[in-house]
Amino acid sequence: MERLTGRERQVLLLLGGGASNRAIGRRLGIGERTVKKHLTSILAKTGVSSRLAAALLAQHRHAELCPYAGGVASEGVPEGHRP
């Protein structure tokens, strides 16, 4: 998880919440192609082989991924992650 960029972490968190590429892109203000590129990078860095495996990883390691769990939220933070 340490190898993921901040944006990759955001994408992974949203993926773990069940968001589609389109929904992730809209939420983060990026295109679907960019979301796909981030997902490709996430799969490579985490060693998982599918979108489903990445989503499950995000759910399992949520606290490690989400810097807002006990802090102050900012723009672009998924709804369920705001204090």
Q: What's the short version?
A:
The protein has 83 residues and is an all-alpha fold. It contains five helices and no strands. The longest helix has 15 residues, at 32-46.
Describe this structure as you would to a colleague:
By secondary structure, the chain is mainly alpha-helical. Helix content is about 60%, strand content about 0%. The chain is built from 5 helices and no strands. It has helices spanning about 5-15, 20-30, 30-45, 50-60, 60-65. The longest helix is centred in the middle third of the chain and has 15 residues, at about 30-45. The protein starts with 5 loop residues before the first helix and ends in an 18-residue tail after the last helix.
List key phrases describing it:
58% helix, 5 helices, 83 residues, single chain, mainly alpha
